Amino acid sequence: MAANKNKNQSSMALHKVIMVGSGGVGKSALTLQFMYDEVRRVSTNFLLSSMNN
């Protein structure tokens, strides 16, 4: 059983990612999307008001 566990662990690739960018550009949103395979939906009104500021 231990041999199977080691075999499964060795077949998984390990990647390190560095997120760089200004505040409020979506670094955390992208990180959460990759970690949990989930996208947060944002209303169009929020996007339009963000662009006007």
TrEMBL record:
Keywords: Nucleotide-binding
SUPFAM superfamilies in the record: P-loop containing nucleoside triphosphate hydrolases
Tree of life domain: Eukaryota
Cleaved signal peptide residues: none
Protein name: Small monomeric GTPase
Coiled coil: none
Pfam name, any one: Ras
GO MF term list: GTP binding; GTPase activity
Keyword Nucleotide-binding: yes
Gene3D superfamilies for this protein: P-loop containing nucleotide triphosphate hydrolases
